[in-house]
C-alpha cells in the first residue's frame, strides 16, 4: 500500500468517527476491515456539481451520496450565502431523501440561516417555483431525478430561481472542501447537537398549491373557447408527480387522467422500472397496456419521471399505412416542436414591441431555430432563438441574462420543457397541462396530435434525430478516457457520404462557455454532436438530418429517407470512434 493510500486510511477512520448515519458508518467500517485498499479508493476525490447538481450512488465517503456529504455541502453553501440566508428545501421519495432534507435544514439553521422545509415528498418544479415565490436566497432539492434506485442527489438553486453555474459552483465547491478539511482534524465549526427548531419551519401545502396555480396559469386558451375535452393515460413511474398532476388537471377543468395504478404511488425501489427514465425502452409498457384496455382509445399517454420535472408523450399513429394505429413515444425534440408551435400560435402578439426569446440546448434539434425564425420573418412578433449548453441551468438563463425579452419557451431533447418564466427549470407538470390543452384543441378541430406533427414537418421540413451511446459501465477508467479522447479528436472530411462543412470544438469556448464536446456540421443541414454525459457514465452522439418537404413532398417518404440517412450516419460515426 502506498503512502497516499495510508493517508487516505486516516481519512476513512475519521469519516467513520464523524458520520452521523450509523448505517453508512458501519458499512465503511466493514469495508475497511475486509478491503482497506477499496475503502481508500472511496476517498479519491469528491462528487462535484455537474449538469444537474450532485448525483451519485448512496454509500459512504465523499464520492457517494450520504448524510455527511449533504451536511458538508450545505455548510459550504451557507458560508457562501449572505448572513441569515433563507433556504427552502424539498425532497422526493427516494431512499434517504427525507433524512438528507432534514440534515440540510439543520445545517442551514446552525449556520445562522433560516430553513423552510417542504412538508412531504414533492416534485422538483414545486421547489424550483418556491425559491422565487417565497423570495428565498437559495433552494435545495434532494433528488436523483430518473436515476436508478441506488442513487440520490442534491440540486441547488440560487435566488434567481435557476441552478447555479460558474463561477458560483466553483466558489461553493471550494468552501465545501474547506469544511471537509476542517472536519478531518477537528469538531467542525457548527454545533449540530443544539436545538435549532426555532430556525426551521415545516411548511404547509402552500408551495404545492401555489405551483398548481402557476402551472395552470401557463395554459394558452380559455376553457370556454376550447373545451378541455381530452382523454389521457398517465404514469408517475413510481415517483412524486402523481397526485400533484391529477390535482392540476382537475383544477384546470380537464377530464381526470386514467392512472397506471401499478406505478402511481411513490416507491423508492421502482419495482416495475429498474431504470425509471421514460426515455428508456420498456418504461412505458404498462402505460401502453392500460391505454389499449380503454374504449374509446385515449388521445395521449403522458409520463413523468420520478421527480416530475420531465415529460414523455406517446400518441397513436398509423406509421405502416395499414389502418392499424399503434402507440408511438414521441422524441423530446418532437414534443418540443409541438409545444413551441402551440405557444407561438397563442402567445405571440402581432407586431409586439417587446422581443420574445425561445431557448434550447445544443444537443436539441435545430427545428426550434427554424420555427422561431419563421415567426419572426412573418412579422408575428420579434422572436429570437438562443442555443445554450446542455442542462436547464443554461437553458433557463436567458430569463435573467435578457431581462428586456419575454421568455416564451425553453427545452432540451431529454424530455425537459420550460414554459414561461414562473418555474425557471424544466417542469413536467406544466408541460403535461399544455400538451393536454394542445390535444384538446386538436380534437376540437377534428384532427390529432400526430397530424399536428405532420403539419409542422410540412411547413418547416422533416427534422429527424437519433443518438448513438457509448457506455463506460464496466470499462476501465483509462479505456473510457481513451474513448473520449478519440471521439473528441475525430476530424472527418465526410460522414455517410455527406461533406463536412464545419467543425467546432466546444472546449475552446468560441461561441459558448467552454465544455467538452464537438459539433460537426454536414451538407444539407445535417449535424453530429459528440459530448460526454454530465449525469451518467456515457459518451453520447446526437445525430440530425433534415429532409425538405417543399412542393408537396410526401411526408412518409421524407421520413423514410431521413431514417435511412440516420442509420448510415450512426454507422459512419461508430466506425470513426469505436475502433
What's the short story on this structure?
With 579 residues, this protein is α/β, with parallel strands linked by helices. It has helices at 3-18, 22-34, 36-41, 67-80, 97-110, 124-133, 168-185, 206-217, 242-252, 285-293, 332-346, 367-377, 392-395, 398-401, 428-444, 449-460, 477-488, 555-577, and strands spanning 54-57, 86-91, 114-117, 138-142, 151-158, 200-202, 232-235, 258-259, 300-304, 311-317, 326-329, 356-361, 383-388, 406-412, 416-419, 462-471, 494-495, 498-505, 518-522, 527-532, 538-547.
Layout of helices and strands, plus pairs?
Elements: H1 3-18, H2 22-34, H3 36-41, E1 54-57, H4 67-80, E2 86-91, H5 97-110, E3 114-117, H6 124-133, E4 138-142, E5 151-158, H7 168-185, E6 200-202, H8 206-217, E7 232-235, H9 242-252, E8 258-259, H10 285-293, E9 300-304, E10 311-317, E11 326-329, H11 332-346, E12 356-361, H12 367-377, E13 383-388, H13 392-395, H14 398-401, E14 406-412, E15 416-419, H15 428-444, H16 449-460, E16 462-471, H17 477-488, E17 494-495, E18 498-505, E19 518-522, E20 527-532, E21 538-547, H18 555-577
Parallel strand pairs: 2-3, 2-4, 3-6, 7-8, 7-9, 12-13, 12-14
Antiparallel strand pairs: 1-5, 4-5, 9-10, 10-11, 14-15, 16-21, 17-18, 18-19, 19-20, 20-21
Helix pairs in contact: 1-2, 4-5, 4-7, 6-8, 8-9, 8-15, 11-12, 11-15, 11-16
Give a written overview of the molecule.
By secondary structure, the chain is of the alpha/beta class. It folds into 3 domains: 45-204, Alpha-D-Glucose-1,6-Bisphosphate, Chain A, domain 3 (3-Layer(aba) Sandwich), CATH 3.40.120; 211-458, 3-Layer(aba) Sandwich (Alpha-D-Glucose-1,6-Bisphosphate, Chain A, domain 3); 461-577, 2-Layer Sandwich (TATA-Binding Protein). 38% of the residues lie in helices and 20% in strands. The chain contains 18 helices and 21 strands. The protein has helices at residues 3-18, 22-34, 36-41, 67-80, 97-110, 124-133, 168-185, 206-217, 242-252, 285-293, 332-346, 367-377, 392-395, 398-401, 428-444, 449-460, 477-488, 555-577, and strands at residues 54-57, 86-91, 114-117, 138-142, 151-158, 200-202, 232-235, 258-259, 300-304, 311-317, 326-329, 356-361, 383-388, 406-412, 416-419, 462-471, 494-495, 498-505, 518-522, 527-532, 538-547. The strands form 4 sheets. The protein has a 6-stranded mixed beta sheet, sandwiched between helices. It has a 6-stranded antiparallel beta sheet with strand order 16-21-20-19-18-17. A hairpin with an 8-residue loop joins strand 4 and strand 5. Helix 8 (206-217) packs across helix 9 and helix 11 runs parallel beside helix 12 (367-377). The protein is globular, with a radius of gyration of 24 Å. The two termini are 36 Å apart. The mean pLDDT is 93.
